[in-house]
Write a structure and sequence with these properties.
With about 325 residues, the chain is α/β, with parallel strands linked by helices. It contains 14 helices and 7 strands. The strands form 2 sheets. A 5-stranded parallel sheet has the order 4-3-5-6-7, with helices on one face. It comes from Actinotalea lenta.
């Protein structure tokens, strides 16, 4: 298992993770307020946040290894006692160090609390700035259980400085699974929309952190515009805009309107690049938008459509077939 290095100052390089970590320290360090009250019985969600793992992982450890909650609260809800938490802290530390889960569980169950607890939070804090590996299945489970805290935790810790990898290895597989597997949901509840809303919130957090670090260098107007037309969701367009901004290309997403009003908005923005995000197939609106912009000498148009189909006839555009391709090509042109 990968060991997560730390620099001599105790923080990972880069401002985003450090600024986010300073505001929301999970798992909490030994000096944090939450660790000063270890005797309270904790819910599954609270323990998952403290350990930095998905609630589904806790349930697996309970089912497979007997590392479950031992206390009951009103309504027959099971709660983790301080002894339970001490064992889980040991389990978490050992698995982070590469010990097989079965062996880690046996050690955790056999280690007295007084030997396990004192240094465990310090050990976990040593990993607090480390990136989590993408686990789409855990993200799906958290979204379906309505565990928004676990969803946001995973979204924040996977590829914190690379929105493209974050989307490709975590978000997109999870969204595909949620869309493909039939479930029964009550009126007003939607796992897909819940996860999508959390993804937008995470992108906003990353954008704010980026703007804070580079405020003096960001122009007043966007250099690139991303127009989602014909795609099932605008999320990919926002991911691309975030990735471009992270590479020094201030980008905004152009949404709504007709092809005519969208073309007018592009002209007013005076952007140098327009990326038409056409989804899996170009739509008449996307084609109409590009044709209305034809002849603008100061605008370069990229046509982003997945697959290998031809660009619609008569469009003078640069074809890109992936989010990464669009990001790299736009950044290269503007560099």
């Amino acid at each position: 298992m990968t060991r997560f290095p730390r620099d001599p100052g105790g923080k990972r390089a880069g401002g985003w993770a450090e600024s986010r970590h300073d505001r929301h320290r999970w798992p909490p360090a030994a000096g944090d307020a939450v660790s000063e009250q270890p005797e309270a019985a904790l819910s599954v969600a609270a323990v998952a946040r403290r350990l930095g793992i998905a609630p589904a992982t806790l349930r697996t450890w309970d089912r497979r290894y007997g590392l479950g909650p031992s206390e009951h609260s009103a309504g027959a809800h099971r709660r983790y006692s301080p002894d339970d938490l001490a064992r889980l802290l040991t389990m978490r530390r050992l698995t982070l160090e590469g010990v097989a889960p079965g062996e880690a569980a046996r050690t955790a169950l056999s280690t007295p609390r007084q030997e396990a607890a004192p240094s465990e939070l310090d050990v976990l804090d040593a990993y607090a700035d480390a990136e989590m590996p993408p686990d789409p299945d855990a993200l799906v489970a958290a979204a379906r259980h309505g565990d928004n805290a676990a969803v946001r935790w995973m979204l924040a810790r996977v590829h914190p400085r690379d929105p493209l990898e974050w989307y490709a290895t975590l978000v997109r597989p999870a969204m595909s699974t949620l869309a493909a597997e039939p479930v029964l949901e009550r009126a007003g509840e939607s796992s897909c929309h819940r996860l999508e809303a959390s993804c937008y919130a995470e992108l906003r957090s990353r954008s704010v952190a980026l703007a804070t670090r580079t405020a003096e260098d960001v122009p007043a107007a966007p250099v690139a515009l991303v127009a989602p037309t014909g795609a099932a969701t605008d999320l990919e367009a926002h991911v691309l805009a975030g990735a471009l901004s992270g590479r020094g290309v201030p980008a905004s997403v152009l949404v709504g309107g007709t092809p005519e009003t969208a073309a007018e908005a592009v002209a007013r923005a005076r952007a140098q690049v327009l990326v038409v995000h056409a989804g899996h197939r170009g739509t008449p609106d996307a084609v109409d938008l590009v044709r209305r912009l034809d002849g603008a000498d100061d605008l370069m148009v990229f046509w982003h459509e997945e697959g290998r189909g031809p660009v619609p006839d008569g469009l003078r555009v640069h074809r890109v077939r992936s989010l990464a391709g669009a990001c790299y090509e736009v950044a290269a042109v503007l560099s």
